[in-house]
Structure formats: C-alpha cells, structure tokens
Write a structure and sequence with these properties.
This protein is mostly beta strands. The protein has one helix spanning 3-12, and strands spanning 29-34, 42-47, 53-57, 62-65, 73-75, 83-88, 94-98, 102-106, 114-115, 124-128, 135-139, 144-147, 155-157, 165-170, 176-180, 185-188, 196-197, 206-210, 217-221, 226-229, 237-238, 254-259, 265-269, 273-277, 285-289, 295-302, 305-310, 315-320. The strands form seven sheets. Strands 1-28-27-26 form a four-stranded antiparallel β-sheet, with no helix packed on it. 49% of the residues are buried. InterPro entries: PSII_CF48-like_dom, Sialidase_sf, WD40/YVTN_repeat-like_dom_sf.
Length: 322
C-alpha cells in the first residue's frame, strides 16, 4: 500500500456523528456552516484575510471565496489529482500540492494554475514558506523539496528517512521541522542542507506541526497524539489527550493544530471534534463536535475568526468572542 493510499484511507475512514452547530463547552465560540456546493473532501485551507480564502481537496477541487465564505466558487485546477494543501504568499501568488507529485502555481489569485516540474513521483502533503524566496514541500518516502527562487524551481533535499512526511514548518530560512509517520520528526538548522532525524516518538502518526514561536511547537496525530517541544523540535513531551468520558471508547485522531498567539491554540480532528487552549497548551478543553464529519483544514486570518474544512465539502466558520 502506497504512502498516499495509507494517508487518505487513514484520514477518511472515520465514524460520523450527528452535527452540532453550537459549542456547549464554550459560549464565546459560535459556529456556522457555509455552503460549498461540492461533496469533495477538503483537505487544505488558507485565508489571506477574513474575506479572501481558498480550499482544496479530492478530484482536483479548488474553491475560492472573496466575501468571507458567504459564497464559495469552484475554480479549475487543471488536474483531477487529490490536492492536499494550499499556500498563498500574498493575494495573487500561491501554490497547490497533492498526489502524483502535483505542484501548481498561480499568479492571479488562483484563477489559473500552471504545473511546475519536480524531480519526484511521491505524493506531497505539507508546504511552508518562511520568506518570499525560500520554501519547502514535504511528502511520501521522506521527500523534501526546496526552492530558493520563490518557487520557480524546486530541488530535492536528503531527509535521511523513508517515512511519509505530512507537515512542515519553517520559522526562519534556516530552522525547520517536519513530522510524519511512525513518530518521525526531522529538524534542520541550516536551511535543509542537513536534516537530523530525532528520536522516534513511538508508533504515532503525526499529521500536523505548528510553532507559535521559534522554540515552542506542537505536533498532533492519531489516537489523540499531542506532543510539545520547547527547544525548536529536538525534544518532545507526550501530552496525548485521554478519553474524558466513561462512554469514550476510541481516542480522537487530531488532524490540524493552530495557535493565534503563544497562549491561544486550537485543534480540529475526526468526527468534527474541536479543542482549545488559552494557557499555552498547559490544559486543552474539549469544545465538542462542530461538524458531522472529520475536519482536515483550519485557518485563522485573525484571532477572532477561523474556518475549518473536511469531508463531504464541509466548511464551517468559527467566530471567537472574549
């Protein structure tokens, strides 16, 4: 079974619960569902500001909004490949990545896309640009691609692992962390010239990593996996979320983590579950299910509002009060 097949099967085989448009656990957060006009699974999501956003997913699906999600419009991607992630450097220039080594670039806000050649056949999952010039993409079989000319050309770097890498974040042009299958964490301090494989974090599969500052980071994964680092990703502390009720029989897979400041963080996962911290991750509070399906995308254009995307074309907006 390929890394892509394993990844998609693992993410999409979730038990569905009834939709819950409100969050009983936190009256300061309101949730509203938006209309996507698609049944595609939406894996990637980004917003440049509270009005302008893009979502991507299965079947080469790209959706764009210019009014905060009141209307989502489908755009031709020029491919039917599964799209796993999307990144925009500004309101015009962006990239989509996905299966079959898909890398496509736009210079007009996503209206048209041009394929970019890369020297790999691996599926691609994570993308990070710490500056306009330098960017990285990670994927199956330990694939790491680097650009130093703003995405015009991509070259492969040696990751020293064959594990699938699902997420990457660079906090500068020199320091970056990528995470993936079988507890894999790889770290670089020289822009990817050398990558150092850290001690494996057990059998956990990490789906996402996020650093609110250069030292402090969080990685999330299957079966409630939640790991914390305070030294830039070299050492990790297991803070896996346990079952919190007597009826809990299966730990929730955590699929995306984001922080809006060093104290305020959010996690979405399977069965539409949402978690929140307001104390820098010391405690995480379960907010309940905000959708009837698993959620894979999470974007905060500002600290007061967010969007999440998932299976069956699901798009939900969160508005956060005081």
């Amino acid at each position: 079974m390929s890394a892509l097949t394993s990844f998609v099967s693992f993410l999409l085989c979730s038990f569905l619960l009834a939709a819950n448009p409100s969050i009983a656990g936190d009256a300061t957060v309101s949730v509203s569902k938006q209309t996507s006009h698609t049944e595609a699974t939406l894996l990637g999501l980004t917003f440049r500001n509270p009005q302008l956003g893009w979502a991507v997913g299965s079947g080469g699906t790209i959706l764009k909004t210019i009014d905060g999600g009141k209307k989502w419009r489908r755009i031709s991607s020029g491919t039917t490949a599964l799209l796993t992630n999307v990144y925009f450097r500004d309101q015009k220039v962006g990239w989509i990545i996905g299966a079959n080594a898909t890398v496509r670039r736009t210079g007009d806000g996503g209206e048209t896309w041009t394929a970019q050649p890369v020297d790999t056949q691996a599926p691609l999952y994570g993308i990070s640009f710490p500056s306009d010039s330098h960017g990285w993409i990670v994927g199956g079989n330990g694939t790491i691609l680097h650009t130093q000319d703003g995405g015009s050309h991509w070259t492969e770097q040696a990751s020293k692992t064959n594990a699938a890498l699902y997420s990457v974040q660079f906090v500068s042009e020199q320091h970056g962390v990528a995470v993936g299958a079988v507890g894999t964490v790889v770290v670089t301090d020289d822009g990817g010239v050398t990558w150092v494989v850290q001690e494996p974090q057990g059998s956990v599969t990490f789906f996402d990593v996020f650093f609110p500052d250069p030292s402090t980071g969080w990685a999330v994964g299957n079966a409630g996996a939640l790991f914390h680092t305070t030294d830039g990703g070299r050492q990790w502390i297991d803070r896996t979320l346990p079952c919190t009720t007597q009826s809990c029989t299966k730990l929730t897979d955590l699929l995306r983590v984001r922080f809006t400041d060093p104290q305020s963080g959010w996690i979405v996962g399977e069965r539409g579950m949402l978690y929140r911290t307001i104390d820098g991750g010391f405690t995480w509070r379960e907010q309940g299910s905000i959708a009837a399906v698993s959620l894979f995308g999470l974007a905060f254009p500002d600290p007061k509002q967010a969007w999440a995307t998932g299976e069956k074309g699901t798009i939900v907006q969160l508005k956060i009060g005081r």
